[in-house]
Automatic annotation (TrEMBL):
It comes from Oncorhynchus tshawytscha (Chinook salmon). Its main location: other. Cadherins are calcium-dependent cell adhesion proteins. It is found in: Cell junction, Adherens junction; Cell membrane. The gene is CDH8. This is Cadherin domain-containing protein. Keywords: Calcium, Cell adhesion, Cell junction, Cell membrane, Glycoprotein, Membrane, Metal-binding, Repeat, Signal, Transmembrane, Transmembrane helix. One of its GO terms (biological process) is cell-cell adhesion mediated by cadherin.
């Protein structure tokens, strides 16, 4: 057979001069009986990729040493040996044990060798050969980047490119037609077409309109084997969107719009809306509105709402029903973007009729601002001026006038509610306020209010006398020369005459023949005061007073008398004032007045300190009786230090022991001489007398004399405390003696009062003892 001839030629080509000969033999009958075939040529086995479960024979290895008497073994090594490829050690047959995929690996390099089966010693050098995997059409085309989206302007010409798709095939592009692809459209006709080789999608239908249909879904197929039967195919989708072009003009929804606008609509407020619809979208649908006719008075304007694309009609000037009751406007809407190639007028017009509605308007003043004048010091009820307002409505209601008192807090003006005459309510003073700005309101029956500003200027009259510009104090040197200028004097006037100020200065009549001073007019509303002689002495007269009359040029003229004080001072040869006091003559040499004052202040301070120290020493409290702590009569001494009861938290704190009732106006008892004269005490002291008897006598006298406080209260107590459940233990302010009181309850108060109870609970016999 033909296969046998090929195998024979292959055996001849593998023969070499070496004793080791590797031959690849293929059983022709087995190859012919299988669908898959393998050939060996120039040390290469060619095998089609397969996917069957059974092993397939790749080829056979044979050596001349295989004569039957030598135990030989064929060994296979290299890529895939033992896993993908297996060899029969005895016969040398090579089988593919797993599926071969050319797209994973296109060829394998292996090494064959003949060894001794018993000793595994190589009988020949290794021989390398290649097994090449032959491609078959087992991979369909794939659109890796799909699905696709593309866009193209509406109304594009036929043949306009939309987009390009790309499919890939994993099969061998150089062997056969397994990877040769052909493209076609399965869905999307007759709108689009595709080039079968380049896969470029193009417009196939004229006049595609986005407003009719905006989106198209195109299904593209790619088929291998050149598109012939039996080839594999893959599909993808392309979503084509038509983009908008400005091919539609704006169009008003109606040709006539009618609005009713009240005449009191504020300027800038909307009075109506119109809209022109455009089938285009985006920038192509934007329009601008204009009034092209009917607004000769320039009363209205129309603007575009950027969000809604509506034309908003607004007022530029106020409406007046009494003047014009209706308007007819012609409004135009035009696209902002215009395509000159379209050849269509991208605009539209509509008529707008506006009816002005009569409104109840507030009164209207004849002027927005009134300027009036009045003389200062004009009498009350003087008419300053008149404001006028009218009702612009057809009814012509009466107008009443009022002053906004927030602008006339001092109520200096009144207005007549019927005729608008403004009168004075209080006298005015120009020197206090030159201008008064008040607000007058005009009100009609319906309580509509309008306001006007009234500026009232207060005119000046000569009601203020001139006076010195400042309080002058002149200094005259003892060694001054006659005719010397002592002081330059000027005057001021609060009035403001139109012709300006002119002042006349003169001495009072009693001083016309003043022997010491005279005045000279400087011609600039000021005078100079001059000395007449040089015999001024401080010892003789230290200070002079010069009255000067200042008169203005008003009508009537006003005048005032001002006094200039002139002090006589000692000066240097250059005329510099050094001292103006007479005391300077009696001061010791080298001791100034300031130093003398400082010395006197120190002496006074020392005297005050000494007086305070002596006073504090005299008022210092001294204890009356000092006893030893072990003395049995210590109860008398401790009585002087009695605490303030349960409220006493700080012992010996006089501030805490003060009577809190004294804050409410109850003063503690003062140690004053009683009105009731009691029997005087004996003047004999305790010398030579038993101390215990002396104390008992004094205690008895104190208990029976309610007006004489015990001497022990003088030192400490103004208040013994309040709120204590024990009450008072003192014998103050009581006429009873210790024998009349029962102190047995003190023992029940605990160990702290036990010693006190024992002292006060002694019987009559004990006291006598």
């Amino acid at each position: 057979t033909k296969s046998s001839d090929c195998l024979h030629e292959l055996s001849k080509s593998l023969q070499t001069g070496s004793t080791a000969l590797l031959r690849g033999l293929v059983e022709g009958q087995r190859i012919l009986s299988r669908a898959k075939r393998g050939w060996v040529w120039n040390q290469m086995f060619v095998l089609e990729e397969f996917s069957g479960p059974d092993p397939i024979l790749v080829g056979r290895l044979h050596t001349d040493l295989d004569v039957g008497s030598t135990p030989i073994k064929y060994v296979l090594a290299g890529e895939g040996a033992g896993t993908i490829f297996a060899i029969n050690e005895i016969t040398g047959d090579i089988h593919a044990m797993k599926r071969l995929d050319r797209e994973e690996k296109a060829e394998y390099t292996l090494t064959a060798q003949v060894t001794n089966r018993d000793t595994d010693q190589p009988l020949e050098p290794p021989s390398e050969f290649i097994i090449k995997v032959q491609d078959i059409n087992d991979n369909p085309p794939q659109f890796v980047e799909g699905p696709y989206r593309a866009s193209v302007p509406e109304t594009s010409q036929v043949g306009t490119s939309v987009t390009r798709v790309t499919a890939t095939d994993a099969d061998d592009p150089v062997y056969g037609n397994s990877a040769k692809l052909v493209y076609s459209i399965l869905e999307g006709q007759p709108y689009f077409s595709i080039d079968p080789n380049t896969a470029i999608i193009k417009i196939a239908l004229h006049g595609m309109d986005r407003e009719m249909r905006e989106e198209y879904l195109v299904v593209i197929q790619a088929k291998d084997m050149g598109g012939h039967m039996g080839g594999l195919s893959g599909t993808t989708t392309v979503t084509v969107t038509l983009t908008d072009v400005n091919d539609n003009p704006p169009k008003f929804s109606k040709s006539l719009y009618e609005f009713v606008i009240p005449e009191d609509l504020a300027i800038g407020q909307p009075g109506g809306k119109v809209k022109a619809n455009d089938r285009d979208i985006g920038e192509n649908a934007k329009s601008t509105y204009n009034i092209i006719d009917g607004d000769e008075r320039d009363v209205f304007e129309i603007t575009t709402d950027a969000q809604t694309q509506e034309g908003i009609l607004r007022l530029k000037k106020p409406l007046n029903f009494e003047t014009k009751k209706s308007y007819t406007l012609k409004v135009e809407a035009a696209n902002i973007r215009f395509d000159p190639n379209s050849g269509a007028p991208f605009k539209d017009t509509a008529t707008v009729k506006i009816a002005v509605e009569d409104s109840d308007e507030p009164p209207v003043f004849s002027k927005p601002t009134f300027v009036l004048q009045v003389d200062e010091n004009a009498p009350i009820n003087t008419v300053v001026g008149t404001v006028t307002a009218r009702d612009p409505d057809v009814t012509g209601s009466l107008v009443r006038y009022f002053i906004d008192r927030h602008t006339d807090l001092e109520r200096q003006f009144n207005v007549n509610v019927d005729d608008g005459k403004i009168t004075l309510a209080k006298p005015l003073d120009r020197e206090t306020d030159m201008w008064h700005n008040i607000t007058v309101t005009a009100t009609e029956i319906s309580n509509q209010i309008s306001r006007a500003t009234v500026a009232i200027r207060v005119l000046d009259i000569n009601d203020n006398a001139p006076e010195f510009a400042t309080e002058y104090e002149a200094f005259l040197c003892e060694n001054g020369k006659p005719g010397q200028v002592i002081q330059t004097v000027s005057a001021v006037d609060k009035d403001d005459p139109i012709q300006g100020h002119y002042f006349e200065y003169r001495l009072i009549p009693e001083m016309l023949n003043n022997p010491n001073f005279t005045i000279k007019n400087n011609g600039d509303n000021s005078i100079s005061v001059l000395a007449k002689h040089d015999t001024f002495r401080r010892q003789k007269q230290e200070m002079y007073f010069l009255p000067i009359i200042v008169t203005d040029n008003g009508n009537p003229p006003m005048s005032s008398t001002n006094t200039l004080t002139i002090r006589v001072c000692g000066c240097s040869r250059e005329g510099i004032v050094q001292s103006c006091n007479v005391e300077a003559y009696v001061l010791p040499i080298g001791l100034s007045m300031g130093a003398l004052i400082a010395i006197l202040a120190c002496i006074i301070l020392l005297l005050v300190i000494v007086v305070l120290f002596v006073t504090l020493r005299r008022h210092k409290n001294k204890p009356l009786i000092i006893k030893d702590d072990e003395d049995v009569r210590e109860n008398i001494i401790r009585y002087d230090d009695e605490g303030g009861g349960e409220e006493d938290t700080e012992a010996f704190d006089i501030a805490t022991l003060q009577n809190p009732d004294g804050i409410n106006g109850y003063l503690p008892r003062k140690d004053i001489k009683p009105d009731l004269q009691f029997m005087p005490r004996q003047s004999s002291g305790p010398n030579g007398v038993d101390v215990d008897e002396f104390i008992n006598v004094r205690l008895h006298e104190a208990d029976n004399d309610p007006t004489a406080p015990p001497y022990d209260s003088i030192q400490i107590y103004g208040y013994e405390g309040r709120g204590s459940i024990a009450g008072s233990l003192s014998s103050l302010e009581t006429a009873s003696s210790d024998s009349d009181q029962n102190y047995d309850y003190l023992r029940e108060w605990g160990p702290r009062f036990r010693r006190l109870g024992e002292l006060y609970s002694v019987g009559e016999s004990d006291k006598e003892t």
